[in-house]
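User: tokens in, sequence out, please.
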């Protein structure tokens, strides 16, 4: 999006130190890792990134992303929109050595810790990649209608009845 003044690469430590906020919209079509899961890539997602320093003097990044993705139901394959609502805080560290080990992370989860996930930041941090990551993580593993039949157009009704027949044969 050439009209977008937001730079893709940001110094997240300066953002945290100066409590900077950047917000904008990102074209859904530019989120290429998402494309396979979408039936339509038109539209955009709105995002806000806010840097902050917590009480322990650690740099954090608060990310929110909102918008709607045109996906397909994994049960009936008919259109199903998914409302993106990312609201996450990340603890920005300076190197991979500062990251928790997987064992530490697992223990923290088991202990019910709500400490923010650590992520390696930089002065050239790819915020668009982060937005894409967070959106992908927010999508349910099985994105399905609550009740498929109610959403089906009549022309697809035969599919459902064919499944019913198969179910009875079992
Ligand atoms: Zn469905």
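Assistant: Sequence out:
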């Amino acid at each position: 999006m050439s009209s977008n003044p937001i730079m893709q690469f940001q110094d997240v430590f300066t953002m945290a130190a100066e409590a900077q906020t950047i917000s904008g919209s990102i074209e859904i079509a530019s989120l290429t890792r998402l494309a396979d899961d979408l039936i339509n890539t038109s539209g955009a997602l709105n995002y806000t990134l806010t840097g902050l320093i917590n009480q322990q003097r650690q740099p954090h990044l608060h990310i929110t992303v909102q918008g709607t993705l045109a996906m397909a139901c994994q049960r009936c394959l008919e259109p199903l929109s998914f409302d993106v609502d990312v609201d996450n805080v990340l603890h920005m560290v300076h190197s991979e050595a500062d990251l928790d080990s997987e064992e530490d992370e697992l223990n923290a989860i088991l202990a019910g810790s709500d400490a923010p996930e650590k992520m390696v930041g930089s002065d050239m941090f790819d915020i668009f990649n982060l937005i894409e990551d967070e959106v992908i993580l927010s999508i349910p593993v099985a994105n399905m209608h609550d009740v498929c039949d109610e959403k089906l157009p009549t022309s697809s009704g035969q599919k459902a009845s064919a499944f019913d027949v198969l179910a009875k044969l079992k």
